[in-house]
Amino acid sequence: MTSTDKSLPVHLIINPHSGHGGRKRLLSGIRAQCRRADIELIEHTTTAPGDATEYASSIAAQASAAIVWGGDGTVSEVAQALAGTDVPILPCPAGTENLLAHEMRIPSDPHKIVDLIKFGRIVECDVGRVNGRNFLLIIGVGFDGEVVRRLSISRTGHISHLSYFWPIWRTFWEHDFPHMKITADGKEVFDDFGMAFVGNISRYAVGLRICRDAVYDDGLLDLVVFSCHRQHALVFHAAWTLLRLHPLKGNVIYRPFRNLRIETDRPVPSQVDGDVGPNTPLDIDVAPERVKLLVPESRNGWGFWPWKGN
Ligand SMILES: [Mg+2]
Fold this sequence. Notes:
Bound molecules: magnesium ion
Strand content: 25-35%
Largest sheet: 11 strands, antiparallel
Mean pLDDT: 88
Number of strands: 17
Order of helices and strands: EHEHEHEHHEEEEHHEEEHEEEEEE
CATH architecture of the largest domain: Sandwich
CATH class of the largest domain: Mainly Beta
Distance between the termini: 28 Å
Structural class: alpha+beta
Oligomer: single chain
Number of helices: 8
Low-confidence stretches: none
Radius of gyration: 19 Å
């Protein structure tokens, strides 16, 4: 096993509201594989928002690893508690959106997941901070934040990709792009109308790679700003982003940074790791503490995109 103390049990933190029926079969598979491998497994099923953080805090000194069975929201909650500790997190692709699990190429097969507990590699992942709150994946400011804000108002239980349709549709037609002033590492880099993203990983929803070149362990976060006055510009930006060529466009800012400030002409909402975040102004930096992740031994092969290999 790859943990610092092999005598400690592995904890399995389950969000019962994530995933679908077929995923429960995989969960049974993990239990069976752990029994076979003689791994002591302690399970905890979350009951409310914030519960995963509370539970993870309570086991920080008593776990060799924490398997998270849920979506990105559950992983973020666990990471809040385990950042700066020696307990690695294994984020399973078990929710609606699993950006971190996909970025780290975590398999969904129970046998391979248990193999990761035994033989996986521990890496240290940067943690971002926005207005003092930790985040792991990506922040969206403006349009994106408005979509998540609208979704949170209409939300009733489990979220699917379809849940985003009406919030995106309405925001598309009604959104007024804010005037943003963005300062990165002490230098003003943007002063115009638009929308901004800050990523610790490259993946964004529906397979887009907005922060295309983001690396999770380089001590930097990636800023992407789309200059946008009207709705039709958004369509062009989306098309270039699908092709992963948007950093090459003249009206797109793409740069890594350590410290960032985003100010707007009025308070605008943000989304942080898929949840409602603070309104602007935002102060964003890299947190001093990192979080440990259990990942497969090596990345394999070339991807379809020659200008961004994976
Ligand atoms: Mg980075």
